[in-house]
C-alpha cells in the first residue's frame, strides 16, 4: 500500500523512480479507506533528504499512510528552500488539536549540546507531552531517542570521547516482541552520534525493555512497557552514502572525524561504501507501523481511550 504525501512534494519523484508506492493527496482522496495518519517532526538540517529517507521506509509497508510534516519553528532554514518549508510544513499550532496514529521525531545535529541549552527544548518537551494523549505510538530516532528518554524517564545521556560513526552488528532480544518479528539473531544498523545512555541503566529501568544492542555501540532498540514509545538510537533511515557524506563534510570543516567503522570497503574511504542495513530498516518501520500503530490505534482517532496494550 502507498504512503500518501502532498501533491508535488520533491521526494515523490525520487520514490517513484525507486518503485516505492506513493500516492498524491488528490488520488488518495478518492479512495474509501482508513489510512494511518503519521506526523513527522523533522529536526534535521536538510529537510528534503530526511523526508525522502523516511518516506522511503513508510512507503514500503502494507498500509496506506497519510503523512503530515511538522517543523519546530518558523525560522529560515539554511539548508531547505523557504518555499518548500512554507508549502509542505505545518506549525505545531496547526496540529495541536489533531490526533495521529504515529509520530516520528528525527535526529538533530545537537549531539554535544545540553538539552536545556537547546533553543527549542521547551517546544520539544511540549510536543512529547502532547503526543502522550494525541498519538498512538511515537518513534524517536537518534538524538530524539536520547531527548525522549531524558524527558520521559529522567535518563541522562553521557557524552562520548569521539563521535560514534559506522555500521555495527546488533544482537536482538530472545523474547518474542512483535517489533522483532522477522529479525535475524544478528543484524546491522548505522550509528552517528556523540552520546549514549549506558546499557545497564536502560535495562534497570522498570518501565523500559531493551530489544536490541551492540557490544560496540550500546543499546539500539528500547521500548516502553506500554508499547507506545520506541527509541532507536541509530539511523535505520540512512541511505548508502549518508555516513560517507557526513564524514567528508566533517573533514572539510576541519573536525578530524574518525573513519566510520565497518562501512567503507577495506576501511578505505577511497573505496565504495557498503550498505548492510536497508532490509533491517524496512522491517523495523513495517513492524512498528503494523504491530504498534495499526494494531493498537482506535478506528476513530477522536477516541484515544480505546487503545489497549499489545499482548504478545
From TrEMBL:
**Family per record:** Belongs to the MetA family.
Positions with a binding annotation for substrate: 163, 192, 249
Q: What is the protein name for this chain? A: Homoserine O-succinyltransferase
Per the UniProt record, the site (Important for substrate specificity) maps to: 192
Q: Which domain of life is it from?
A: Bacteria
InterPro entries given in the database record: Class_I_gatase-like (IPR029062), HST_MetA (IPR005697), MetA_family (IPR033752)
Q: Major location, coarse class? A: cytoplasm
Q: Mention one GO molecular function.
A: homoserine O-succinyltransferase activity
Known function:
Transfers a succinyl group from succinyl-CoA to L-homoserine, forming succinyl-L-homoserine.
Q: Where are the active-site residues found?
A: 142, 235, 237
Recorded metabolic or biological pathway in which this protein acts: Amino-acid biosynthesis; L-methionine biosynthesis via de novo pathway; O-succinyl-L-homoserine from L-homoserine: step 1/1
Amino acid at each position: 500500500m502507498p504512503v500518501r504525501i502532498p501533491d508535488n512534494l520533491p521526494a515523490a519523484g525520487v520514490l517513484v523512480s525507486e518503485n516505492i508506492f506513493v500516492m498524491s493527496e488528490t488520488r488518495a482522496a478518492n479512495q474509501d479507506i482508513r489510512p494511518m495518519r503519521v506526523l513527522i517532526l523533522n529536526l534535521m538540517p536538510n529537510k528534503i533528504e530526511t523526508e525522502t529517507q523516511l518516506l522511503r521506509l513508510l512507503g514500503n509497508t502494507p498500509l496506506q499512510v497519510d503523512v503530515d510534516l511538522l517543523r519546530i519553528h518558523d525560522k529560515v532554514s539554511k539548508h531547505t528552500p523557504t518555499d518548500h518549508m512554507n508549502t509542505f510544513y505545518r506549525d505545531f499550532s496547526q496540529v495541536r488539536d489533531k490526533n495521529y496514529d504515529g509520530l516520528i521525531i528525527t535526529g538533530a545535529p545537537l549531539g554535544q549540546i545540553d538539552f536545556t541549552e537547546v533553543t527549542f527544548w521547551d517546544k520539544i518537551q511540549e510536543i512529547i507531552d502532547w503526543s502522550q494523549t494525541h498519538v498512538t505510538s511515537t518513534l524517536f530516532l537518534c538524538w530524539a531517542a536520547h531527548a525522549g528518554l531524558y524527558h520521559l524517564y529522567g535518563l541522562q545521556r553521557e557524552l562520548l570521547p569521539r563521535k560514534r560513526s559506522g555500521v555495527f552488528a546488533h544482537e536482538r532480544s530472545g523474547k518474542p516482541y512483535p517489533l522483532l518479528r522477522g529479525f535475524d539473531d544478528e543484524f546491522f544498523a548505522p550509528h552517528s552520534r556523540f552520546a549514549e545512555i549506558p546499557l545497564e541503566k536502560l535495562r534497570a529501568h522498570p518501565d523500559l525493555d531493551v530489544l536490541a544492542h551492540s557490544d560496540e555501540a550500546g543499546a539500539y532498540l528500547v521500548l516502553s512497557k506500554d508499547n507506545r514509545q520506541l527509541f532507536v538510537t541509530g539511523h535505520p533511515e540512512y541511505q548508502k552514502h549518508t555516513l560517507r557524506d557526513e564524514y567528508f563534510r566533517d573533514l572539510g570543516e576541519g573536525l578530524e572525524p574518525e573513519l566510520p567503522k565497518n562501512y567503507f570497503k577495506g576501511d578505505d574511504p577511497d573505496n565504495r561504501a557498503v550498505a548492510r542495513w536497508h532490509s533491517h530498516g524496512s522491517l523495523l518501520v513495517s513492524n512498528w507501523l503494523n504491530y504498534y500503530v495499526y494494531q493498537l490505534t482506535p478506528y476513530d482517532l477522536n477516541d484515544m481511550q480505546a487503545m489497549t496494550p499489545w499482548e504478545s
